[in-house]
Amino acid sequence: MTSEIFEKWLRKLNNSMRFDDRKIAMILDNFSGHPNLNLSHIKLFFLPPNTTSMTQPIDSGIIKNLKHHYSRFLVRKRLLAVDSDTGFKLDLLQALDWLKKSWDNVTPTTIKHCYQHVGFKDLPATEETSAPDTSIWSSAEEAGLVSDGLSFEDFVALDNGVAIGLGASGRKIDDILNSPHSPSDDDVDIENDGNKYPLIIHVP
Question: Same structural domain for residues 29 and 103?
Answer without folding.
Answer: no
